[in-house]
Amino acid sequence: MKDRSSRPHHSPRVTQAEVIEKILWLRKHYHFGPTKIAMYLARYHDMTISTSVVWRILKRLGMNRLQVDVKFIEPLGQTDRRKKYYQFTAIDDCTRLRVLRAYPRCDQKTAIQFIDHVLAKLPFAVERVQSDNGSEFGASFHWHLLDKGIDHVKIKPRTPG
Length: 161
Fold this sequence. Notes:
Helix content: 25-40%
CATH superfamily of the largest domain: Ribonuclease H-like superfamily/Ribonuclease H
Number of strands: 5
Largest sheet: 5 strands, mixed
CATH class of the largest domain: Alpha Beta
Radius of gyration: 20 Å
């Protein structure tokens, strides 16, 4: 007796590679969420696919992360050049929901405050956070996420997320 694969010979409900390629292309080039991708495929390619299937495909391929970044901002009409603000931004990869907040400091304590604010605002659980390699996303931030059961992934240096 020889072991054989238990995989079915025919899977009529499997998503075709052509559809998966279109989903990935729309995600990478237009940053569409699952709903927009499903509507776009139905309207322009006559492909009917549910939003949940699109989401599962994006999740399986690791494209469902919450991305966090920080930018320096200078308030309009400010006369005191010494006062700086930092805009922390979190964007959910699937829904494209954004949470923004400005802080006078850019450190790990502030990043932890911001991520707690984001987690309280989003209407769903976060599984993974992607950030750049800034010092504000260092060890304390990393361990804070792990304590909450959230995976923390840093992008490769000098590559846009």
